[in-house]
Amino acid sequence: MTLSTRCLNCRKRFEVERNQEIAECPHCGSRWRISWVDADQPKVQGPA
Amino acid sequence: MEERMLAVFPELCTGCRDCEIVCSLKHFGVINPERSRIRVLRDVFEGFELPLVCLQCEDAPCMNSCRVEAFYVDERNAKIIDFEKCIACRRCIIACPFGVNFLDPVTKKPLKCDLCSGDPECVKFCSTGALRYITAEEYNREKIKLSSEKYIEAIKQEER
Amino acid sequence: MVLKRKAAFVDLTKEKAVVQDIPVELRKMHLGGRGLNWYYLYNNIPPDADPLSEENILAVGSGLLSGFPALGAGRVQISAKSPITGGVGDSNMGGAFGPQLKYAGFDHIIVRGKAKRPVYILAKDGEIEIRGAEHLWGMDTHETQKAIREEIEDDRAESMVIGRAGENRVVFANVMNGVKNSGGRSGLGAVMGSKNLKAIAASGAVDVEIHDPENLLRYALDVDGRARSTKWAKTLGRLGTPLLYDVSYTTGFIGTMNWQYNTPGEDGSPLEAENLERYGVKMVACIGCSVHCRHRVKIREGKNAGLTTEGPEYAAAGAFGTGVGIYDWEFVIKGNAECNKWGVDIISMGTTVAWAFELYQRGYITEKDTFGLRLEWGNEEAVLELARMIVEREGIGNILAEGFRKASEHFGEETLYYANQTKNHPNLLTDERGIPSFALGIATSTRGADHLRSRPGIDLFQLPENLLEEIYGHKIISDFTAYETKGIMVWWHELLYNIVDSLGICKFQTVFNSANSPKFEDYVPLIKYATGIELTKQQLMEIAERNYTIERLFNVMNGFSRKDDYPPERYFREETKRGLPFMKGRKLDREKYEKMLDEYYRQHGWDENGIPKEETLARLGIEKPRMSFPVIEKAADVKKR
Questions:
Q1: What residue numbers bound the domain in which C365 lies?
Q2: Phi-psi sector, B115: left (phi>0), alpha (psi -120 to 50), beta
Q3: What is the pLDDT of residue C637?
């Protein structure tokens, strides 16, 4: 199962690894702090 | 198949009353929580939700109190009222030590959970798992899981 | 046909009421809830009626599906002429009152006149009783509900009540139920206050009959499962609406220090949704909702230790947060709790207070006006004290309690520029100037600036255009900074939200912030199984058009037209100063906005001045208003106490 969330900058979805806390959007290079709604659902919390 | 029970986890109840709504819908074809066999005791000002439903006691005071033999036990160990025989004397309501045998305001007969022939409608609609139809073993496992989560949370709060 | 539902028409001046069946033909034209409320009000409120006089009429309408086990169907619509705008006043409230009104035997209660003494209306098992409320006057919204439950000896009774703000006719006073369920915006608490009506209580055990119970259960489970399994609903069920804060402060579309900025930037990180979790007790729900988006919170230490309440929502993080330059959940929780007990609209309160703070910054308001209160950004004490003064109409609070337009007569006409409003209605603490579809939505909303009447939340996702065309039935441009086609998008959401409000289901479980949520076609089977009324998707959309155009006509009758369909002037003049690169340095383009407005009117079949065309009225079967309020003199007396 691929885990993904939407980048707030370029609005494209990108993959996040399980339990990852900081992630970089491969499309636009934005760096985000990630929080987890549940084990399978990451979301952007704020800028890293 | 192993016997299952309608288990209640109040800490997961959100107070949506879907269980009451679908119970009346399933049994009477109407929506009327006052005619439901399950009730959520809720006080938003005090801040609690507590679903109340028949526990299907092994030695059931409701059944023991019935003088017209309107009760029978089905293959799931549910104590069920045969309304053809029931004379609406309401002894069984008085006898219930938990107050989970209710009174139908329309028919004046008792309202008691019958486990929906092994597929409880309330459980299907409960989105958080506050109501589950599970075995005793599963029940114990869940109780331990939930209370250990609470314990861990309490320790975390202390650390803060 | 099982649809034997009732409406009570109550005349408070005469203390009389009459109960009538709601004709099925009216259902097919307007459904229920918001749609049916506005059928009654459009026909019965005279255009020149003063909103706070006995001529105004208050309509309370449980949605057609309120009380159903799906899609958050616990909602009720409360409507009247608004004391803020002088036009459509319309509040949609969650919680438990809507379903309880049905079990009391009523779908609608329509109230006119003014009681000679404080009263409350008790709807119980199909009967209407008018009871004295002298002993309830002065109580907060929680105390009032508890006192009514005790008095009528029913701990499952639900009431919609007003608090101090409504009694004092603060123009943005709310109607409240439970801890925080708000009939908000529009100032309908003030309308109740002006009628000496403290509360409407509902109690009873009347069956709500269902056309096809078996299929309803099956379908409800299916459609509800779809609604709650979207990423949006799952996040909402965990973090509540504060999740929106993470998006808006990061991107840069949350009004900060009265919209001088579009985000607090890093300063605002304490208000991230995840930081609210430490106060959480558990998530709770409205009746019939499986998403459970509201927090029960408890402050466990510090000066507010022991405070247990529900919320706060995203809007409160603006009102008691960014709007006034405060970034502390604990303060937001406190302000939120106070407003709910006062029975005042948190959004309008926040936007009004933020305006006063900017006027203080610019010297239009001085310490002399505030009795020494220093309205400086970040001053927590000043925010709460000013809010209290507004509710109690003390000093400068008495001026601010009248709304922007009247208050600006006092502070100087030019101060209106700094008020974030349309049709005099305070806006949510969102900054729409970089998002044309959102800006059009707040500008054209029939109840004045507001996000819940047409906001196409999914516009921000820039979804693929083939998917957009599938949803909207029109070609829609994916780029959310575009103006073209957004008029059609807003039109579609207006219709959708009208249906949702008329059915009594929740906006968070339709296409608002998730493209995968249920929409028109998914309601067709629900309506059929519940009521036996068979409608097509096309017919549903036509009902929505009719309902929406009636609201528009009500505004037109009260002097509204194109001139009232513009977002705050500030959005055209001042560029955003912060945010992500695509959100920085943005403002609205006047010429493009005008074209977008034209497109929106065309889509509705309204003329270039925003007036519905004769052919549109004919197509929708809308007639001239005619009084339909029943002659009450002949009716039997209601019970009185």
A1: 241-419
A2: left
A3: 56
Residue B159 pLDDT exceeds 80: no
One domain for residues C270 and C143: no
Q: Specify the pLDDT at position C636.
A: 55
How far is residue C301's CA from residue C108's CA, in Å, rounded to a whole number?
44
The amino acid occupying position C192 is M
> What is the model's pLDDT at position B147?
87
Chains A and B touch, using 3 or more CB pairs below 8 Å: no
Chain A segment 14-33 residues within 8 A of C by beta carbon are none
CB nearest to C210's CB, from B14, B29, B128: B29
On whether both C413 and C441 belong to a single domain, the answer is no
Looking at the complex, report in whole angstroms how far the Cα of residue C583 sits from the nearest Cα belonging to chain A. Answer: 9
The confidence score (pLDDT) of residue C628 equals: 80
Q: Domain range spanning residue B25?
A: 4-159
Query: Which whole number is the average pLDDT over B10-17?
Result: 96
- For A4, which residue in chain C has the nearest alpha carbon? C231
Q: What CATH code is carried by the domain that includes residue C272?
A: 1.10.569.10
Give the pairing type, strands B131-135 and C294-298. Answer: unpaired
pLDDT at position C3: 82
Looking at chain C from residue 198 to 237, which residues have their Cβ under 8 Å from any Cβ of chain A? 231, 234-235
Query: Looking at the complex, does the CB of residue A46 fall below 8 Å from at least one CB of chain C?
Result: yes
Structure confidence at residue C94 (pLDDT):
97
Q: Out of C251, C266, C273, name the one closest to residue A8 (CB).
A: C251
Q: What b-and-e string marks burial along C519-540, b requiring 16 or more CB atoms within 10 Å of the CB?
A: bbebbbbbbbbbbebebeeeeb
Closest residue in C to B19 (Cα) is C69
**Is the Cβ pair A38, C234 closer than 8 Å?**
yes
Query: ipTM higher than 0.90?
Result: yes
Give the DSSP H or E segment for C244. Answer: helix C243-251
Residue C62: per-residue pLDDT = 97
CA distance B58 to chain C (A): 31
Identify the CATH number of the domain in which residue C598 sits.
Answer: 1.10.599.10
pLDDT tens sequence for chain A (48 residues): 789 999 999 999 999 999 999 999 999 999 999 999 999 999 999 999
CB distance C462–A41 less than 8 Å? Answer: no
pLDDT digits (tens, 9 = 90+) for B79-121: 999 999 999 999 999 999 999 999 999 999 999 999 999 999 9
Inter-chain touch C287–B31, beta carbons under 8 Å:
no
Q: How far is A43 from chain C (nearest CA, A)?
A: 9
Residues (pLDDT < 70) of chain C are 1-2, 633-637, 640-641
User: Could you tell me if C82 and C448 are in contact, meaning their C-beta atoms sit under 8 angstroms apart?
Assistant: yes
Q: Is residue C408 part of a domain?
A: yes
Between CA C401 and CA C415 the distance in angstroms is 16
The dihedral through the CA atoms of C592, C597, C600, C605 has a sign that is: negative
Domain count, chain B: 1
- Residue closest to C628 by CA, chosen among C23, C48, C101, C77: C23
Give chain C's domain count.
3
Please tell me what DSSP assigns to residue C332: H
Q: Which chain C residues are Cβ-neighbours of B14 within 8 angstroms?
A: 282-285, 289, 292
State the residue range of the domain holding A27.
4-47
Q: Which chains touch A (3 or more CB pairs under 8 A)?
A: C
The answer to whether B34 contacts C286, with C-beta atoms less than 8 Å apart, is no
> pLDDT by residue (tens digit) across C108-153?
999 999 999 999 999 999 999 999 999 999 999 999 999 999 999 9
Give the pairing type, strands B102-103 and B110-111.
antiparallel
